[in-house]
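ENTRY TYPE: paired fold submission
RECORD: A
CONTENT: sequence, then structure tokens
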Amino acid sequence: MTGATGSKVAVITGAGSGIGRAVARAFLEAGHRVAACGRRPEPLAETVGDHAGGLVVPMDVTDPVAVTAGFDRIRAEFGRVDVLFNNAGGFGPGGAVDEISLADWNACLAVNLTGTMLCAAAAVSIMKQQQPSGGKIINNGSISAHTPRPRSAAYAASKHAITGLTKSIELDGRPYKISCGQIDIGNAATAMTGRMSQGTLQADGELRPEPTFDVAEVGRAVLLMAELPLEATINSLVITAAGMPFVGRG
């Protein structure tokens, strides 16, 4: 891996929109090479634009064959992987634990948790073997990894699990100079959070508008985590819209 100011190879999942797009563009604009990964090539191409260091890699993170093929292509094109931002995910089914189907539960965990594991495993395998070895993995948790919203049993469970996975990767990666941190994001303004300004269900059952913040700030935050030298790491970072009901939620 290069130094804090050098060009790195970053793999961004869920890069076709929202947080993933903002992070991918932040890396590209900082001069890094970026593999933009996601299920649909057209939005990925829009994310990369005309940046020479961009690579579109269609990939379903729930498919182990697709993940292996995607990372093989990235290594063939760029020679190494310095950073993985595990961002692909979704809110999953809305409902209490007794109101969601097993199929919906499994689908949510397949993307949010198993997809993160598969991509981390592929990245770690490359990071161990490359010369110089090492790298950084940054997992997109959520403030729901700390405090759930009502009627989000599947999503909250998947994001709490990400915290355990993050710590395990960090621990097991130490001998290879591989670190793993987690960024927990609250109310970044994307298509997924557009409804929050109209009203979001609170713990007391009321609907209230919530503030949001520019998703570009998430790109800056992930870039900060990634550009630290291997000798330093940010284990956990929480970024939220100022004044949102998170601290003291409920």
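RECORD: B
CONTENT: sequence, then structure tokens
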Amino acid sequence: MPKLNIALFASHGGSNAQAIIDACAGGVLDGSVAVVISNNSQSGAMEKAATAGIPSYHLSSKAYPEEERLDQAILETLLTHEVNLIALAGYMKKLGPQTLRAFAGRIVNVHPSLLPKFGGHGMYGRRVHEAVLAAGERETGVTVHLVDEEYDEGPILAQARVPVLAGDTAETLAERVLQCEHEFYVETLQRIASGNISFPALR
């Protein structure tokens, strides 16, 4: 398996992106972060990339109003930086068809529930945790999955379970799930890098 050369996509705070950056820098993850892409010029992920000396790009509909041109700009950026894996880390936009085709089987995402429960369009962040609590679930968790044309429907690569505790609020549950995400996403990416998770598209 080749060393991972990762593009991180993030829209907001970028805590998962930071966990991956740190894991690469610390030798925990056999790979490097080649580039960070965000649709939000003020995102924490862009700041974290700058601090780490990683190239970052604000690519959004503001600069590229035509969806096809935005998709092309993203793909060109990925190819320029010789990326072989895309890791979505709180990216709130759907990838375009050109990027999906070029990186088919090489795009992963982390979702804060045990898919297929509580996934799909509009299910992100606090909404997921509120839905888990409203359903009376006794456990939730983290899912790392491949990305395809539909929200949260790609093949599941790995899952970690997080208990729902008595008295949990959306905020307390979100905090515990996010901590699990930081560790589990890195762990799963390392399993991909080491070949412990079958990933034919990287061969």
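NOTES ON RECORD B: The two ends are 6 Å apart (CA to CA). The beta strands are 4-9, 31-38, 56-58, 85-88, 107-111, 139-146, 156-163.
STATUS: closed
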